[in-house]
Amino acid sequence: MRKRGRRTRGVLAMVAAAVLGVAGCDAVGGDSAAPPETARPSPKPTPLWDRSPSSVAAVGDSITRAFDACDVLSDCPEASWATGASPEVDSLAVRLLGKAGAARQSWNYAVTGARMADLPGQMDRAVRRKPQLVTVMVGANDACRATPSAMTPVSAFRADFEDSLRSLRRALPKAQVFVASVPNLKRLWSQGRTSPMGKQVWQLGICPSMLGDPDALDSAAVLRRDTVQKRVEDYNKVLREVCAEEKRCRYDGGAVYDYRFGTAQLSRWDYFHPSVNGQARLAEIAYRTVTAKKP
After folding, report:
1. 19-69 pLDDT, tens digit each
2. Which keywords does this chain's UniProt record carry (predicted)?
3. I need a labelling partner for 47 at 20 to 30 A (CA). Which of 22, 127, 154, 292 fits?
């Protein structure tokens, strides 16, 4: 009886301890098993390409300075496809930032007559503004030399373009780049040669490698123009290949080169540079490329 009593008391003690343990758990939150944590939604990854950048810097040559768009032999930056304020152009900066935003947050560092060798220096000036988007349009002057033999070698063109993008990337790792193709110079020749006034202006030295002796159709003249045109195509290949190596770079896919500039899109003073209308067409191409969901 004594042994059975001890066993009974032991069982009762164990039951009491278990009950107290359960009660203790209830006292601090109920069931002993912890409730599953509420799943938190994963944050959306930041896209590599921002289709609505908040600032724009432009580098390049006379096209981005809107040379001969408003007056003879002079820059007209207010009509620039990249950063101009002209409502007739509706520039890339205005389309992206609005008129007021473009006035505050866009800058034009292009220089009339610039070649690819000048791009690294322009890029260094542009990065000081810390733009979110940099537009590049350069290469026509590398082909527009006194003679085809004086054109910039393709290897040098590539090296300077790569140097420019490296300089940008060191200073602004997340800056985006829009790269426009070099225009089809031979098509510009075929359009502009229909204007007597245009041909007179060409004699002042506008793109002599392509536009010199514009009415000549002999084999030497044909070979000269074809040589220049092939170099333009090689430049565009470089722009496409180098840009493709950058995650935050978009090339226009040859859209500027392919665009069929008519007389309405060419300056009435030189029949070579884009007119105000032509600048508006360039702005459309750039905006379409920058805001595309996929390059």
Report:
1. 333 333 333 333 344 445 555 655 555 568 999 999 999 999 999 999 999
2. Lipoprotein, Signal
3. 127
Q: Given the structure tokens 């950058």, which residue do they identify?
A: 246
Q: Are 177 and 165 in contact (CB under 8 A)?
A: yes
Query: Residue 30, class by beta-carbon neighbours within 10 Å (0-12 exposed, 13-18 middle, 19+ buried)?
Result: exposed
Output the pTM of the full model.
0.83
Question: Residues in the chain with pLDDT < 70?
Answer: 1-47, 295
Inter-residue contact 193 to 263 (CB < 8 Å): no
CB 31 within 8 A of CB 25: yes
Residue type, 126: A
CATH superfamily of the 56-291 domain: SGNH hydrolase (3.40.50.1110)
- For β-strands 56-60 and 249-251, DSSP reports them as unpaired
Task: Provide the residue ranges of all domains of the chain, joining segments of one domain with +.
Answer: 56-291
Of the candidates 183, 185, 160, 161, the one whose C-alpha atom is nearest the C-alpha of residue 249 is 161
Query: And the tokens for 121?
Result: 């220096």
Dist. CA 65–CA 72, nearest whole Å: 13
CB neighbourhood size of 203 (10 A): 12
Question: pLDDT for 255-275, tens place per residue?
Answer: 999 999 998 999 998 999 999
Query: Could you tell me which residues come within 8 angstroms of residue 237 by beta carbon, excluding any fewer than 6 positions away?
Result: none
In angstroms, the CA 235 to CA 139 distance is: 7
Distance CA 250, CA 177 (A): 6
Number of Cβ atoms within 10 Å of the Cβ of 14: 10
Question: Are the C-beta atoms of residues 251 and 243 closer than 8 Å to each other?
Answer: yes
Gap between the Cα atoms of 60 and 80, Å rounded = 11
